[in-house]
Design goal:
- It is built from five helices and no strands.
- The chain starts with a helix and ends with a helix.
- The longest helix is centred in the middle third of the chain and has 37 residues, at about 70-105.
- By secondary structure, it is an all-alpha fold.
- Helix content is about 65%, strand content about 0%.
- The protein is elongated.
Length: about 150
């Protein structure tokens, strides 16, 4: 293994107990930052999948008949809310998968509209972001103007 490959390997792997936080002073989307965001995205996806599994198990256990109509209505309302939440999370998983694909192809962290860096603070807060804050605001203003009321 040559020295350059060894340095790249050391930069991309870091201990999970390490409290690395990407900073503006670093080269944007260097291997260490990409590893940081990949880990964050994978952990987020794993949490969602774990919660979904728990929800499925709870719904299977909950599928009992309630003799009281008010209890049945409350249970159905809770179930509907839980299912809507899981549906939103299912859609979120596809966005996380798309972000992981961008990490792999090298386009992660760059605005899909302008090609400029999105910004570390925005990515840290919303790792699935595909647009810079400015491009997102412009998109939302345009959407507001053209939406059907």
């Amino acid at each position: 293994m040559d020295l350059e490959s060894k340095v790249d390997l050391e930069e991309t792997s870091f201990d999970s107990s390490e409290t690395y936080q990407p900073t503006e002073g670093e080269e944007f989307m260097n291997p260490r930052q990409l590893a940081y965001f990949r880990k964050k995205l994978v952990a987020w996806k794993d949490d969602i999948l774990r919660e979904s599994k728990e929800t499925l198990e709870a719904l299977q256990e909950e599928s009992q008949n309630h003799p009281d109509i008010a209890d049945r209505a409350s249970s159905e309302s809770d179930r509907a809310l839980e299912l809507r939440t899981r549906d939103r999370q299912r859609k979120l998983i596809s966005k996380i998968d798309a972000a992981l694909a961008r990490v792999d192809d090298g386009s992660y962290g760059y605005c899909e509209v302008t090609g400029e860096p999105i910004g570390l603070a925005r990515l840290d807060a919303r790792p699935i972001a595909t647009m810079s804050l400015e491009a997102q605001e412009k998109h939302e203003r345009r959407e507001k103007v053209y939406r059907d009321d």
